[in-house]
Design a protein that fits this description.
The complex is a heterodimer of chains A (about 700) and B (about 325). By secondary structure, chain A is an alpha+beta fold. Chain A has three domains: about 5-95 and about 155-230, Aldehyde oxidase/xanthine dehydrogenase, a/b hammerhead (Aldehyde Oxidoreductase, domain 3, Alpha-Beta Complex); about 245-395 and about 540-685, 2-Layer Sandwich (Aldehyde Oxidoreductase, domain 4); about 400-535, Aldehyde oxidase/xanthine dehydrogenase, molybdopterin binding domain (Aldehyde Oxidoreductase, domain 4, 2-Layer Sandwich). Helices cover about 30% and strands about 25% of the residues of chain A. In chain A, strand 20 (about 410-415), helix 12 and strand 21 form a beta-alpha-beta unit. The longest helix of chain A is centred in the C-terminal third of the chain and has 28 residues, at about 465-490. The N and C termini of chain A lie far apart (about 55 Å). The radius of gyration of chain B is 19 Å and the shape is globular. With about 325 residues, chain B is an alpha+beta fold. In chain B, the strands form three sheets. Chain B has a five-stranded antiparallel sheet. In chain B, strands 9-10-11-12 form a four-stranded antiparallel sheet. Chain B has 13 helices and twelve strands. Chain B has helices at about 10-20, 35-40, 75-80, 80-85, 90-95, 100-105, 110-115, 120-125, 165-170, 185-190, 270-275, 285-295, 305-320; strands at about 5-10, 25-30, 50, 60, 65-70, 175-180, 180-185, 210-215, 220-230, 235-250, 250-260, 265-270. In chain B, strand 2 (about 25-30), helix 2 (about 35-40) and strand 3 (about 50) form a beta-alpha-beta unit. Classes of the chains: A alpha+beta (about 700), B alpha+beta (about 325).
Chain lengths: ~700, ~325
């Protein structure tokens, strides 16, 4: 085991292992729970109900895996066996497994507000009139699948009571939200709970709140009088910890003789599972469609509820829009890149597509792109595709930090952010060290603890924009206090001093100064503890980027291999190029999974997930990952902006467009499976749809 | 997990003594690549595991000029063995595609041949399918995109073993030992359809053990295996095929064509074999044989696409065996 201890690795003294019994049925009422046999198993220390058969509101099961009861035992194996001894009576109800079932007029009403929401309507201008001015119109049905987050470290943590105080080690993207959610779930004052997250093995939006596993662990810990750890197994991770909703879009779009988009008309729907919406918005706002008419409905099914998933709504909307654009270009017989250049939003600091598209085209070798349909002989067809992205990112104004300089010269910047694998700890240390003129090893970034000053959850690409300005301000404030101490010693005003190269020295006379440690000794017995609050101006909002894909498709098997992804992306000021590039690789690989492989497959008759594992829920492995060519554009004047979401947005759209360019048949559905490709080819041979 | 006893068998005799006649109660453990996952998923719940890793793990020449491969040989050892590489490309090419490097290093020849199906209705506890004593196959009106396109059920699994396909194509024999002594079973008699054994996929009795794979001398035969996979890393084939071509100059004297991942057993196509007899291998003759191979396929509601993939696998296996260039190999 390495030095970095993930929540999964942590073992507390006397710790028990908890297991949650999930419902095997997707729709049911719990009519009885009998814990007796589980409680009798040697090694079992606590067992509790989660559902309440006596209360209709708390007896309902709306999706497979929903929590019913839980146990804690001295080993994980005993806990698993005990969980299986819990006897539950269910009144099994017919489930809604698919969108088609939920939308059917004969479907049982499985949700209080109905299975389908009434349409929300949006729009601008006169779509009918605008379509009449179009020289080319495309119409099609576009769809994307449900993707689960598949975090390598599953959800869970350890709950440990000390009197009425609760210490929680949680695998979370938001320690403060986690603390508040767990405290609310238990009905205890929030300050009584403390959440610690040192290292985190992936969340992607699924670990921003609720933490029902920890509420259950805390109840078991209370009952057993010992710390309890619950980490979900892979199956339940797939079933209950969120997903990216499906998206369906019936689109009609038109372009005029000058190659300007004139209208977009869409009817969309999708499912976010049990009682959850499928938020996505088309057309993707990178492009200008002057007249628009949009209607959207959410469909509820008896499946695990959605949660925020890296760029919620964006990959779906990007795929739908960018596919329609390639179809329009094919109708016009013009280069799809040229069509994009004519219709992207006007240039702005956060809208640089007109600059990035040509850069990406150069890198992927767009000039050798053939019109749709590779004419080369043999079964292997090559194709290129592209797509654009945008994301907001921002900073949270409530972010605070506390920078401490102790008389021994140690520097610690404390902030209740968390490193979700993106390098936030590195960033806090880098900014602090640079501010103090010290090497990275001389400062400590203290994060991942709710006892530190507030920072927001790491979602929406806001971490770097919240944390970086705040730790910078805290470090500057601390340094200012130190300079004030040193100035009289050197006989100069504080503003004449600078911290550089491990010294405090006079700006104009560097030889006059003190080594850092000597300077700090002047503090005597009182450390400096300087607060920092988030400030406007050090961060910004809005990123833009483009991606290109180079693929090979075997038209005799339908198998696609991605050869290369090119990305040109900005994220404001780049604080650390290594971690930023790493974000890009991770996002693109996840986008590749969304494009080709990942798919939550439900048995249509029972709404049971048939692939709740990593054997049939396919994610890219090493051999599936192409060359990834990342160009990060530094915009130092804009300040820092997050980069978590942007890299995943355009990958699937670029790949699907490249597959269409290779095969000559339009791919309107994700993931691009061999079955989808072969079906599209067959349809084309049978006369096609265009 | 149900508690179980563990017997470390030093030899065949001890292994057989530790096995027993009741199905599912006493199970041999080699690499554990399949069995341990079955146990963790509560699909297998044996009373006793019998470690057979210490049985014969050598590859030896037979008197006839073939090879005798111990069932405990790991898949990675098989794939790099000089004689196997020289004599049986079809076996080596199948072995190279198994699982991941970790699985190939731990998994054994015997384990690969005897592993249980990957059908998700069989593997998920929620479904009481035919193989678990239930009354129906859930794939029929459920999710069957990876299921059989040959065989008519009643259970629609595809056989999971990559090595079984070339073993049948090459006319391998399996040495099996049991309480009554030893017997040799032709590979194409070893694997049986669900109507003959719903609780297993072979004729092996619970108190018997597969100990060796015996390959006949290849003579003038050329062989190859071609797998079509969705993902390139750690994935199961959508379809595979092994071709063994007995050549007389540039003419095919006789052929054996076997498909994998299309039926509950390795699926031999005598139609395809007849289509090749007397022919010179070209892309056209290979295609004609491939068309013949998938004649009679009966896809389920969601897997018709596999017919095209199986056809491609057969065509490319034949071309590859004949030494022609095949894409993506």
């Amino acid at each position: 085991m390495g030095k970095a201890k993930y929540t999964y690795d942590i073992v507390r003294p006397g710790m028990l292992y908890g297991e949650i019994l999930g419902s095997p049925h997707a729709r049911a009422r719990v009519t009885g729970i009998d814990l007796t046999a589980a409680q009798k198993l040697p090694g079992v220390k606590a067992a509790i109900n989660v559902k309440d058969p006596s209360d209709p509101a708390k007896a309902q099961i709306n999706y497979q895996g929903e929590e019913v009861a839980a146990v804690a035992a001295t080993t994980e194996e005993i806990a698993r066996d005990a969980m299986r001894l819990i006897k539950v009576d269910y009144e099994v109800l017919p489930p809604l497994a698919t969108i088609e079932q939920a939308m059917s007029p004969t479907a049982p009403s499985a949700f209080p507000r109905g299975n389908v929401t009434s349409p929300t309507l949006r729009g601008e201008g006169d779509v009918e009139a605008a379509l009449k001015t179009a020289t080319h119109v495309v119409e099609g049905l576009y769809q994307t699948q449900v993707q689960t987050h598949t975090s390598l470290e599953t959800h869970g943590g350890i709950a440990e009571w000390d009197g009425d105080k609760l210490l929680l080690h949680v695998s979370t993207q938001g320690i403060n939200a986690s603390r508040d959610g767990i405290a609310d779930g238990l009905g205890i004052p929030k300050p009584n709970a403390r959440v610690v997250t040192d290292y985190m093995g992936g969340g992607f939006g699924s670990k921003l709140g609720a933490d029902v596993q920890l509420v259950i662990a805390a109840k078991l810990a209370k009952a057993a009088g010992a710390p309890v750890k619950i980490m979900l197994d892979r199956k339940h991770e797939h079933l209950i910890t969120g997903n990216r909703p499906s998206a369906f879009a019936k689109v009609k779009a038109g372009v005029d003789a000058q190659g300007k988009f004139v209208a977009w008309d869409s009817e969309t729907w999708g499912t976010g599972g049990a009682g959850q919406g499928a938020g996505f918005s088309v057309p993707y706002p990178v492009y200008v469609f002057p007249a628009r008419r949009q209607s959207h409905r959410d469909v509820y099914t008896n499946t695990g509820p959605q949660r925020a998933f890296r760029a919620p709504g964006h990959p779906q909307a990007c795929f739908i829009t960018e596919t329609v654009i390639d179809e329009l270009a094919d109708r016009m017989r013009i280069d799809p890149l040229e069509l994009r250049m004519r219709n992207v939003q006007p240039d702005a600091p956060n809208a640089q597509w007109k600059k990035y598209f040509p850069m990406g085209a150069e890198k992927i070798g767009w000039s050798r792109r053939h019109p749709t349909g590779d004419g080369a002989s043999g079964p292997i067809k090559r194709g290129l595709g592209c797509a654009a992205n945008q994301w907001a990112g921002a900073g949270n104004r409530a972010t605070r930090a506390m920078c401490e300089i102790t008389p021994d010269g140690a520097v610690t910047n404390r902030i209740a952010t968390q490193d979700i694998g993106t390098g936030t700890r590195t960033l806090v240390a880098m900014i602090t060290a640079e501010t103090m003129g010290l090497p990275l090893t001389a400062v400590t970034a203290a994060i991942g603890d709710t006892n530190y000053p507030f920072a927001p959850g790491s979602g929406g690409s806001i971490t770097v924009g919240s944390v970086s300005p705040t730790v910078r301000v805290a470090a500057e404030n601390a340094l200012k206090e130190l300079l004030a101490k040193v100035a009289p010693q050197l006989g100069v005003p504080p503003e004449a001093l600078v911290a550089k190269g491990g010294r405090i020295q006079v700006k104009d006379n560097p030889s006059k100064g003190l080594a850092w440690r000597e300077a700090c000794k002047l503090l005597g017995t009182s450390p400096i503890q300087a607060a920092g609050a988030w400030e406007q101006g050090l961060s910004s909002v809005g990123t833009s980027g483009v991606q290109f894909a180079d693929v090979e498709v075997d038209i005799e098997t339908g198998v696609t291999r991605v050869k290369k992804i090119v990305s040109v992306q900005d994220c404001g000021m780049i604080v650390d190029r290594l971690t930023a590039e790493s974000q890009m690789y991770g996002g693109i690989i996840m986008g590749l999974g969304f494009a080709l492989y990942e798919n939550r497959i439900l048995d249509r008759n029972t709404a049971t997930m048939v692939n709740p594992n990593m054997e049939w829920y396919l994610v890219p492995g090493i051999s599936d990952i192409p060359v990834i060519d990342v160009t990060l554009i530094d915009q130092p004047d804009r300040g820092v902006i997050g980069l978590g979401e942007p890299p995943i947005i355009s990958t699937a759209a670029a790949i699907a467009n490249a597959v269409s360019n290779a095969t000559g048949v339009r791919i309107r559905k994700l993931p691009v499976t061999p079955e989808t490709v072969l079906a599209a080819l067959q349809q084309e041979r049978a006369g096609g749809t265009q | 997990m149900k508690p179980f006893a563990y017997v470390n068998a030093a030899n065949e005799k001890e292994a057989i003594a530790a096995l027993g006649p009741e199905r599912g109660k006493f199970l041999p453990l080699a690499g554990g690549m399949d069995l341990l996952a079955l146990m963790k998923d509560y699909i297998a719940q044996p009373d006793r595991l019998v470690n057979v890793k210490n049985l014969d793990k050598t590859i030896a020449k037979t008197a006839e000029g073939g090879l005798r491969i111990g069932a405990a040989v790991t898949i990675s050892d098989l794939a790099v063995h000089a004689e196997t590489v020289r004599m049986y490309p079809a076996i080596v090419q199948a072995a190279e595609e198994v699982g991941s490097p970790q699985i190939r290093h731990a998994g054994t020849v015997g384990g690969n041949l005897n592993q249980r199906p990957r059908c998700w209705y069989y593997r998920n506890e929620e479904f009481d399918c035919l193989k678990k004593g239930g009354s129906r196959c859930f794939a029929v009106d459920g999710e069957n995109q990876y299921h059989a396109i040959f065989g008519d059920g009643p259970c629609h699994i595809i056989h999971p073993s990559s090595l079984a396909v070339p073993a049948v194509a090459l006319g391998a024999k399996f040495r099996v030992v049991g309480p009554a002594g030893e017997r040799e079973i032709a590979a194409d008699q070893y694997f049986v359809m669900p109507d003959r054994n719903i609780f297993g996929e072979t004729v092996l009795q619970p108190n018997e053990l597969l100990t060796h794979v015996i390959l006949p001398p290849p003579g003038a035969a050329k062989s190859a295996t071609y797998e079509v996979r969705y993902k390139q890393s750690h994935d199961w084939p959508l379809a595979a095929a092994s071709a063994v071509l007995d050549m007389s100059g540039t003419t095919v004297r006789g052929a054996r064509i076997v498909m994998g991942a299309v039926a509950p057993i390795p699926w031999r196509s005598q139609n395809a074999e007849r289509a090749l007899a007397g022919k010179t291998i070209t892309e056209q003759t290979a295609m004609a044989a491939a068309d013949a191979a998938v004649q009679g396929a009966k896809p389920m509601s969601g897997n018709a696409y596999k017919v095209q993939i199986a056809r491609t696998a057969v065509k490319r296996a034949i071309m590859k065996a004949a030494g022609m260039r095949v894409n993506w190999v």
